[in-house]
Design goal:
Blueprint (H helix, E strand, L loop, with lengths): L3 E5 L3 H14 L11 H7 L6 H5 L1 E9 L2 E10 L1 H7 L3 E9 L3 H17 L4 E4 L1 E2 L5 E2 L1 E4 L15 H8 L3 E11 L7 H8 L2 H4 L1 E5 L5 H16 L10 H11 L8 E6 L2 E10 L1 H5 L10 H12 L3 E9 L7 H20 L4 E8 L3 H9 L3 E12 L4
Parallel strand pairs: 4-5, 13-14
Antiparallel strand pairs: 1-2, 2-3, 3-4, 5-15, 6-7, 8-15, 9-14, 9-15, 10-11, 11-12, 12-13
Helix pairs in contact: 9-10, 13-14
Length: 381
């Protein structure tokens, strides 16, 4: 009989154990940066997060000898089910020590929750949706843990696969060193195409952020609407994302490419907040918030991430779209170079998105990390 006990998170003590379980499991991973505790708490608070208010979500913690040794979250995403009609629930926030009994117990509880809600398959990890942190790190373990991406020790994948989960799709991260990459001017010269000179780049500002960010998300929703498992970011969720992002973001790093008066593509670059969070252990009080802001806005980070890129469906596959994407990638590189950034991570992208990957290769990016989405059928109760 297993000595592992799994309990649902139902109160503040349960959430404290949920946070502690990740810290215990990731103690073997020198690259992992502990996320902000209050951000995690907010994510599971229906009063603060629209997604949690509108969907069925249950976090679990595994205990051994009274100590938290693992965690998982089971999620029913109603927007996903309405669009894709695949009777598939999600798992996410998977963290556990290197122990097959702990992984088995966690997945048993999560799968039981999904099965009780009528789900016929489980897919993940998603924390909590495909629009949040997606995929399990399966390659690039020695690379930095960049903000809002997964980082996991190698034993995670081994235990998940031992439980019968198979690859459904890989997501990839590409990195580029700004000092070695292509500038917008060089792109225009190499292109030799008048079209690239007709691409107009519009940039957000602090004053225009409130108006411009919804426009970015609208184009993002359009660009991703046909991708595998895509669900749109709702208006309420967009407001939350904007509110959380603004204190640590740089609006001048957010761009929209236009061609003949129409929005064609977007790219958003953000500082690597994880680099600035190092050593804070997930705590912003009493002095963590001040240190975080100073590291981001005064000292600056040496790494950045481009988490949002996309081409409007109307323009997909066209020459203006390719040149607009390359121009946006080059503009992000120029912004980073001016700020003294040493590495940009573009993540994540579907491994099948050859259009975006080819545009990245045009500006000198290379594959850095790979994240895997797993799936398995759920047996009847």
């Amino acid at each position: 009989m297993s000595d592992v006990k799994v309990a649902p998170v139902a109160d503040r003590a349960g959430m404290a154990a949920f946070l502690a379980a990740a810290r215990r499991a990731q103690s073997v991973n020198p690259q992992w940066v502990e996320p902000v505790h209050d951000e995690i708490r907010a994510l599971f608070d229906p009063r603060r997060t629209p997604f949690t208010r509108e969907n069925a979500i249950q976090p679990f913690v595994a205990f051994r000898g009274g100590e938290p040794v693992g965690r998982i979250v089971a999620t029913i995403d109603r927007a996903h089910l309405a669009k894709h009609k695949d009777d598939c629930g999600f798992f996410g926030f998977i963290d556990a020590i290197d122990d097959d009994a702990v992984f088995a117990a966690l997945f048993q509880e999560a799968e039981q929750f999904l099965r009780a809600k009528g789900m016929k398959a489980a897919r993940g990890p998603f924390s909590l949706t495909i629009n949040h942190e997606s995929g399990l790190l399966v390659d690039g373990y020695d690379q930095p843990h960049v903000v809002h991406t997964n980082h996991a020790p190698p034993h995670y994948a081994r235990h998940i696969e031992a439980l019968g989960y198979k690859k459904a799709m890989d997501l990839v991260a590409y990195v580029v060193r700004p000092q070695e990459a292509m500038t917008p001017e060089r792109l225009a010269r190499l292109s030799g195409d008048q079209t690239v000179r007709e691409i107009e780049i519009q940039t957000l500002s602090l004053a225009s952020f409130g108006r411009g960010f919804p426009r970015l998300l609208a184009l993002f929703n359009d660009a991703w609407s046909d991708n595998i498992w895509a669900t749109p970011v709702s208006d309420e969720e967009a407001k939350l994302i904007a509110r959380l992002m603004l204190p640590v973001a740089k609006p001048k790093w957010m761009h929209i490419a236009r061609y003949k008066g129409e929005d064609v593509a977007i790219a958003v670059q953000i500082p690597d907040v994880n680099e600035a969070l190092a050593g804070l252990n997930g705590k912003l009080l009493p002095f963590g918030a001040a240190k975080l802001m100073w590291r981001i806005h005064v000292r600056g980070t040496k790494r950045t991430r481009v988490p949002m890129v996309g081409v409007a469906r109307k323009w997909r596959g066209s020459k203006p779209a390719l040149l607009a994407s390359s121009s946006l990638f080059a503009r992000a590189i120029e912004d980073a170079r001016k700020a003294g950034v040493e590495q940009i991570e573009y993540s994540w992208m579907l491994e099948t998105n050859h259009f975006a990957l080819n545009a990245l290769k045009r500006v000198g990016a290379r594959l850095s990390r790979t994240f895997r989405i797993y799936e398995r059928a759920l047996s009847p109760a």
